[in-house]
């Protein structure tokens, strides 16, 4: 079964702006997939819909075979989202932010603490576990967002512009982390403005522009045509 299957996705916002004009998208399980496009193309809208933050106008979305509307809980359970903005409580300790997210998925506290320790270790945040989120550096906050998204061991991880405004050193270490996560079996989709980021990480790519899919191919054949 595919990690993500989108058919004829349309989104018109309340102000009349049509952000998506009928998108079809398939992402295979195990893929590392880039959704590329200029500002305003519809990337955030697409992942907003996949993560149930934005209501679609029409079309269908399935995550590992679970329809986002008819099997919403099962679909959401498969998905981890790393939005662009830091939307955790700045006054909460790092450990609590990650553990409490487990509660949303019905993960027992003891197990959530175990998993939180594992992801915080992996992301180099274990020493910071008692600090309030506001005391972390920007790069650490980014890693905290990733740790929190992984607490329920999602099969599909979606990251919106994960390295926007991130310095080159952290960018490299995030790329390594994501590559390893993908190698261990997690399907990853990221949005980016940067072809170089997609190029160094992703096997397959879709390009959207003004709400339409203009390219959907593997990275090698795209690069051979540029
Ligand atoms: P991208 O992430 O590729 O930059 P977006 O999905 O954010 O693109 O935006 C696609 C289009 O939808 C743009 O024209 C944008 O201005 C518009 N848009 C996005 N969010 C909203 C919103 N909440 N209300 C109205 N229009 C929106
Ligand atoms: P860009 O991706 O071009 O940097 P932003 O992500 O800042 O643009 O979003 C542009 C507009 O889309 C803003 O109005 C923002 O509120 C809206 N938007 C972006 N992502 C989402 C989302 N996941 N849910 C709802 N609105 C969103």
Automatic annotation (TrEMBL):
Keyword Transport set for record: yes
Domain ABC transporter stretches: 4-226
GO molecular function, one term: ATP binding
Keyword Repressor part of the UniProt annotation: no
Keywords: ATP-binding, Nucleotide-binding, Transport
Protein name, entry field: ABC-2 type transport system ATP-binding protein
Native organism: Plasticicumulans acidivorans
Phylogenetic lineage: Bacteria, Pseudomonadati, Pseudomonadota, Gammaproteobacteria, Candidatus Competibacteraceae
